[in-house]
Amino acid sequence: MLEQLKNISKEKNLSSLMANVSVAFLGLVSFMLLTRQLSKELFGEWVLFITLATFVDLLRFGLTRTSSVRLLSGANDQKQKNILGSTFRININLLGILTVLCWGAHVILLSYNLEINNGYRLFLFYYPFLALSNLSWNNAMSLFQAEQNFRRMMVVRLSNVGLFCIFLVINQWWLHLGLIDIIWVNIAVNMVSSIWCSIKNWDGLFFVKHAKRSIRKELVNFGKYSMGTLISSSLLKSSDTFIIGMSPFLGSAGIAMYAIPLKLTDLLGIPLHSFAMTAYPRMSKKSIEGDLSGVKKIFYSYVGIITMLFFPVALVSFVFAEHMVLFLGGAEYMDSLPLLTLIFRVFTVYIMLLPIDRFTGVLLDSINKPKLNLYKVLVMTSANIILNLLAVFVFKSLVAVAMGTVLFTVMGIFLGFYYLKREIQIKSGQIVSESVLFLKNLKTHLG
């Protein structure tokens, strides 16, 4: 029995899940503390700032993350140095370009005294500092994912998320600092993690001299598609926040309200992210070896089992939606409780569809068809932006924004299966049979 528990604890899917759950738990606590420390308007500005920062981080690291994980999988020590040094050089160049763009835009806003949501102003000024502080630990994530070292990944992430959470607890009871101070502390804790990764040679800072032009070219050629996919994927959710922030009718308060059911949805999606992180290197390896049958088996098993796991979670969330929203948002959102409950219930439908949509994209990347995955996500993103604009400026409804999320996900599923059937003859009917077979042999997989 003890031996079986040891095997389960070492299982990579579980290690990945525990890493993400640990980080997400502290992120949830931080979110709850922030809703109670900031007014609706200030919390909305924070959400807009951090959503923009996350989106641009995807742009920076999307260019190299997926392609470097693919190359690092199975690479020897010298090749690792070449790849890590090359990714670091690419990312430091991107940081310089983004700094010029952000501060240049900030100067223009000040010069012409243009009126925009303050969350956008905060982003333009403070993001370059945040981008520098999180550069090294983000670059190290590629190495951890390629090595399937999810424990190390968890510890590095906890070093900044945990410190930020501790600060917010202290701030709640004693300091009572405002939004600007909270942003600076967030920058500082990210820097702690980055310095640690640099000292341990996980980020590639001291391997820049080993960077090779041929590797940089290979990373960028693959990465230009995966970056587009990641940016578009991020826009699927973050465009909601960006467009709500542009509305004079909804504004920062609307962002704050919408952020609560959206946060709950993100929490429910954590297991999916964890399984996708383990599935991608496995499917990539099979694809590189030419074992398309093995690739398809992994795909069928993951999609079927995760969808089965998500069903009871989505059902419980639908039933207890009101209690979950109130728990997360606190008393200040009591007056908006019926609206936020309805939005979250719409999102539970989206949660049920998410595994199929996500893994069609992961499979397209794994078989070296990132361009098709990009096309798929671009169609979804375009549809989402159009639906968001209609929901915010025509219907002036946050519920309509959430319904648009369900619609574009259905579109993504149909398009993903269309591409996969054309490329490798995927059969959706085999998802159930392969999932049942996987469950029958579960002991073998764990042992």
TrEMBL record:
Keyword Thylakoid: no
Coiled-coil region list: none
GO cellular component: plasma membrane
Keywords: Cell membrane, Membrane, Transmembrane, Transmembrane helix
Pfam families: Polysacc_synt
Membrane-spanning parts: 14-34, 46-63, 90-112, 124-144, 156-176, 299-321, 333-353, 374-395, 401-420
Protein name: Uncharacterized protein
Organism: Flagellimonas aquimarina
